[in-house]
Amino acid sequence: MIEAFFGLVELMATVLPLPLIGLVLLFFYVISCIKVIPEYERAVVLRLGRLLPQPKGPGVVLILRPIDRMFRVSMRTLVLDVPPQDIITRDNVSVKVNAVVYFRVVDPRKAIVEVENYLYATSQLAQTTLRSVLGQADLDELLSQREKLNEQLQDIIDHQTDPWGIKVSMVEVKHVDLPGEMQRAMARQAEAEREKRAKIIHAEGEFQASRQLAEAAAVIGQNPVTLQLRYLHTLTEIATEKNSTIVFPLPIDLLKAFGGRDA
After folding, report:
1. Can you name the residues that pair with 47 across neighbouring β-strands?
2. Which of 67, 69, 169, 247 minimizes the number of CB atoms within 10 Å of its CB?
3. Tens digit of pLDDT for each residue in 15-50?
4. What are the C-alpha distances in Å from 13 to residues 16, 27, 95?
């Protein structure tokens, strides 16, 4: 590269005068020093090895080569997919859990100076924290109290990455992979729980029906004629079928009523 540059300079020296060559070289140098930083990025600059007080950007910035060294840092929210981790819960159940971490750089100077590779460091920290926190929880807590565990993971990771200028906004446990034996055991437990609730609902229905029948019997017992009307109503309902012979017991009380009227 350097040999090609000097070769180009020698070629220009044979064609153009030296002052014009100097102006051309100065023009290309200025062009190479001008950088455009997008709105979502900041430029961290080391000048002669020392960190400048403030990051540059967004917009057009001037980088003095070769004394300046520029590092681009994205300020957008980054999504980190934590690979599945083998975890043994507190009740000795082996599961595989993966998660997703949402974070962004709030101080680009710290992200460059305080840690060598903030993306790799955050990824490794998320994996170790995921194993540590979920290993202290029971399987039932892991399945039913994810919001609590997510908040705990976020607090720990955010506290650890704060010296690196990183803000963790969200941590979500994405998937819990259970062994086949545990899935079958949980299926049997769920089936037994459903049968239990079905029996309880059936018993409650029988109890309510018995109470209603007792109240109906008390009402009918106060007036014997009500029972006779109920017999007649039942006979009317049966007669609508017209497909069977009906043997209907006739109450003696009904005959007594007619006998009393003849007398």
Report:
1. 50, 68
2. 247
3. 556 677 677 778 888 888 899 999 999 999 999 989
4. 5, 16, 72
